[in-house]
Hints:
The complex is a heterodimer. By secondary structure, chain A is of the alpha/beta class.
Amino acid sequence: MMSARATxxxxxxxxxxxxxxxxxxxxxxxxxHFVHEGxxxxxxxxxxxxLKVAEPELTFGVVDHYxxxxxxxxxxxxxxxxxxxxxxxxxxxxxxxxxxLDDPRQGIVHVIGPEQxxxxxxxxxxxxxxxxxxxxxxxxxxxxIGATDVAHVLATQTIWQSKPKRMRITIDGKLGPGVGxxxxxxxxxxxLGADAAQGHAVEYAGSAVRDLTMEGRMTLxxxxxxxxxxxxxxAPDETTFAYLRDxxxxxxxxxxxxxxxxxxxxxxxxxxxxxxxxxxxxAEIAPTVTWGTSPEEALPVTAxxxxxxxLPEHKRFRAREALDYMGLVPGRPISGTPxxxxxxGSCTNGRIEDLRSAAAVLSGRKAKVPGIVSPGSRSxxxxxxxEGLDRIFTAAGLQWVTSGCSMCxxxxxxxxxxxxRCASTTNRNFKGRQGPGARTHLMSPVMxxxxxxxxxxxxxxxxxxxxx
Amino acid sequence: MSGWTRHDGLAVAxxxxxxxxxxxxxxxxxxxxxxxxxxxxxxxxxxxRSDGTPIAEFPLNRHPQASVLVAGRNFGCGSSREGAVYAxxxxxxxxxxxxxxxDIFFANAINNGLLPARVDAEVVEELMAELGSEAVMASVDxxxxxxxxxxxxxxxxxxxxxxxxxxxxxxxxxxxRSHAQxxxxxxxxxxxxxxxxxxxxx
Lengths: 468, 202
């Protein structure tokens, strides 16, 4: 039996320890392993040693990072075609199922894992992608790993990990209109810093987290890595179980009932001890937008661009650099900053609720700037089209494309030009992230929709009046 | 990967916080096979002007032979892309000294023989001031657990297991395969105890 005072993380961790080493180092069993095109390094390592994938049934291939969104693969560059071909060949050679471009289940790995019911509470999940933290929304331990560790998981279905410390971020209170999971995430990262949760597994708690839908929880956990966390988690509850019912690969019937009994026991004990405890007030969170080149450089849309001279000395140099790159004037309100284009999509905000919320703002309105809307998966695309959301976007003047990582990381050719400013629902405003010289402002889908309508960074709240 | 115990080389300061993985290796270079070498892509956007010409005063352009980097907090934050470490290693960097590192980057560095040395922020700041834009001899001793830069001796805080990996150039796969029996028995009891952990058939 588990000892009392255990956190959600402890309970899932303890059930996966294969070998307990010294200094908290442990060999951990991996329940799900997702591999995308970036896995070519890892498969090359495996081939060099003549090793096979240990557990093909627990391994899933996906085409997302290089997935073309605006035409068939045959029209993409040779480089992109080779990357897509390689993951298909590698997974086929090892008997691993692959959600390929011609598969109706294709999409971004962190969208389709949950969608297909492959992501479940109490699991350990790895992928060679830092936003694997998304899957923690179900109460799983899910984290990104590099190529050497991907090769290790492929070869052994296990991974060596030092047990991280535990941190709890409690957000109570009721979110205001136009405020959602993206704003919760950006505001805690802005308050605590992009390295605040380094070496920690974060559990999100509190009424504002409980009130989130599964998709909102995924957005929140997705951005855990931007605050430096090893992973982010939410304890599974009725919201989780309702989402999982009838998912293709999730347990069903009696098996599901048994699983739910176990999952209900995963919640942190009332007297569980966290190494760090942070409490935030959800009612205080405003629609949030980044101004700089790190996700911690974010502020309420009602605020002004910081003046480096007024910042603590150690932050000045970086702030000057960031403002220079972003082409912003210190002290001016962030609202009213003209944007050149918008992007709606990614593993952070490419799900059906994200598209619905953006469409609610755009309905009957025109976008002043061009932009792309890329649903997170084929299923999301289909559902959005059944609901007529695609027609709202195209009527507004935005481009409706297919699913993939697209303009979040720019590997598939969807990039933002040098010096161009993009209001984006993605996860990183790093220099050059959306393309060399691109200027990225991270914000929620409704905020991006408002920016599209006015052609500048805009407080979305007045645009929501009288709309759901 | 071969292990190492001691490294003597030139240290330069990169006085930036949050040097992220996308700057260490921009996405457009990530489809390149490792065998071609990632060194030329390291910090590509910071080392070059938009027209592609190198910025002469950038620390690594001024001192291309440098092998020890002294950088600001949260070095290697962001993506899990191991290419960020390949770019550093292929450029000849053996040690990065910084107050803090991204967790995934830290693990990737250890897996590739690159020492991520966590050093107090105040000490890093002093080192940067001493280094300025010059390159200074540095000496890293993994056995003794020390780094000597600009006449200052810094104690390394590195877990024994991670130090041993760097020193011996160990590959975890070999180590783990020696636990094959334990893994197999864990697997069968895990599946028996919680059958739902296996994905349902498509």
